Amino acid sequence: MHSRIFAGVIGLAILFTVVLNACTPQKNLLEQVLSSGELRALTRNAATTFYEGPHGPTGMEYDLLQRFATSLNVKLTLITSDDIKDILDQVEDGDAHVAAAGLTVTEERKQKVLFAPAYQSITQQLVYNRKNRRPRNLADLQNGKIEVIANSSHVERLTEIKQTWKNLNWDENSTAGASELVNLVAEKTLDFTIVDSNEFSINRRYHPQLNVAFDISQPQQLAWAFSNSKDRSLYDKAVTFFNNLKSSGELDNLIERHYGHINRYDYAGTYTYLYHVNRRLPKYQVMLSDAAQANKLDWRLLAATAYQESHWNPRAKSPTGVRGMMMLTKVTAKQLGVAVRTDPEESINGGAKYLRSLIDRLPAEITEPDRTWLALASYNVGYGHVKDAQLITEQLGGNPYKWEDVKKSLPLLRQKKWYKNTRYGYARGLEPVKYVENIRSYYDILRWQLERGLNDDVPESILAYSSPIL
C-alpha cells in the first residue's frame, strides 16, 4: 500500500512539473544569449573578416562582433569555417547565433537566412595577371581557366552569366580562400579568378602584377546572417545595433580603420619594395630584430618604419638635414646617444628607442593599435603637433584617443583658422597621415612576404619592374 501511495506522489510530482513547464514562458533567443552570457558567431579566417594581427585578433567582422557583444554585455565566442555553405547551414539550423563572414546578400541566400542591415558595399571583380592579355568582355573568358570559391556568391553570378554565355566554364575550390586564388593567378597557374572588391584591395598590395579586368556584378551588400525563424529577438537587436552604428559615424570609422590606408597606398611602389625586401632587408634584419626586442617592439613594424624613412638606405639624407636609416635629426641623435647617424646599427637602435619613448609617452587611456599609429605620427611630425591635433579632434566631437579621428584633424594644422589657436602652430599635417598609412601597408606586405619565405628567389616579374635607388 505504501508503495502505491509513493508511486502516486511521484506521478503527481511529474504531472505538476509538466504543467509548470507548459505554463512557464520559454526564453526567446535574445534572452538565451543574455542569460548564457555568450554570443556564438560564425566567421571566416581572412583579411576582410577575422585574423590574428600584430596587436591581437582583428578584422572588420571581428571588430563589429566585439562591439555587438559588448552592447549586449556578453562574451564573444568565434566559430571559424572556410566553407560558406557550412556557415550558412549552421546559422540556418541554429547552431550559432549569427554568421558574420563577409557574406554577400543574394536572392538565393535570402531564401535560407535572414540578413541584418548591410554594413558595406562591394562589387565582384574579375582578376587577371597583367603579363597576360587583358580580357575586354565576357566572351574573352570562355577559353580561359577560371577558378572561384565553392558555394560563393561568385558561383551564383557565373551561373547567371552562363545562361547567356553557354561556353563559359569554371572550377569551384572548396578549400582555398580569396587570397590563395589570387596568388594562383599571380603565379599564372590560373588565368582568372573572381573576388570581392574589398578583398582585392587588400591582396593587390602583395601582387602588383595583378589587376582588375572589369566588374562582373553591380554593387552588392555585405551583411550578417541570422536564422530565418519566427524568433527575431536577437535579429531585432542587431538591426538597432547597426542603425546606431551608422548614425553615430562609428561604422564609417571602422571601414576607414580597415581599408583607409589600403585605398591610399601607392601600388606602383610595390615592385621596388618587394625587391628591397629580398635584396636589401636581409643585411639589416638581425639589427632590426635585436633593436626591436630590446625596446619591446615588433621588428617587422620597426623594419616598415625604417623603409618609410630611408628605403633601408643607411646613407639617406633629406633636404632638412635628417640622416641615416631612421632619418634622425642631429638633436634627436645626440639625445639618444647616436654618434654616427649613417651607421645603420646606431641609427636603428636610436630609432627604436625613440619610437618606444613616443609609445610610452602617450596617455595610458590610448589602447592598441591606436597607440602605435599615434606614436608613429609623432615620430614623423612631432609629439606636440599630434597633441594639437588631438585637441582639435576633441573640439570637433571626435575621440582624441582614436587614430581614425585624429588623422582627420592633422591636415587641419595647415590651415591658419586651426593652427593659430594651437600651442605648436603650423604643421604639414597631411604628411604624418600618409606616413602612418604607408607603414601599415609596408608592415602587412612584409609579414606576407615572410610567410612565403624572405630569402626566396625574387620573381623575374619583380626584377623586371624594379629600379632601386641607392
Descriptive report:
This protein has 470 residues and is mostly helical. The protein has three domains: 29-105 and 240-263, D-Maltodextrin-Binding Protein, domain 2 (3-Layer(aba) Sandwich); 124-217, D-Maltodextrin-Binding Protein, domain 2, CATH 3.40.190; 268-465, Lysozyme (Orthogonal Bundle), CATH 1.10.530.10. It contains 21 helices and 14 strands. Strand 9, helix 6 and strand 10 (171-173) form a beta-alpha-beta unit. The longest helix has 23 residues, at 430-452. Mean pLDDT is 87; it is low at 455-470.
CATH fold category name of the largest domain? Lysozyme
Give Rg in angstroms. Answer: 27 Å
Query: What is the terminal separation in angstroms?
Result: 104 Å
What portion of residues belong to β-strands? 5-15%
Q: What's the level 1 CATH class of the largest domain?
A: Mainly Alpha
Going by CATH, the architecture of the largest domain would be: Orthogonal Bundle
Helicity level: 40-55%
Shape: globular
**Structural class designation:** mainly alpha
Find the count of extended strands (DSSP E, 2+ residues): 14
Low-pLDDT sequence parts: 455-470
Reported for the largest beta sheet, the result is: 3 strands, parallel
Number of domains: 3
Q: How many individual helices?
A: 21
Mean residue pLDDT: 87
Biggest sheet strand line-up: 4-1-5
Brief characterization of the structure:
The chain is mainly α and 470 residues long. It has helices at residues 2-23, 29-36, 60-72, 84-93, 107-110, 153-162, 178-186, 197-203, 233-248, 250-263, 270-279, 285-294, 299-310, 330-336, 344-361, 370-381, 383-395, 403-409, 416-419, 430-452, 460-465, and strands at 38-43, 51-53, 56-58, 75-80, 98-99, 113-115, 120-122, 124-129, 147-149, 171-173, 192-196, 210-215, 220-222, 225-227. A hairpin with a 2-residue loop joins strand 2 (51-53) and strand 3.
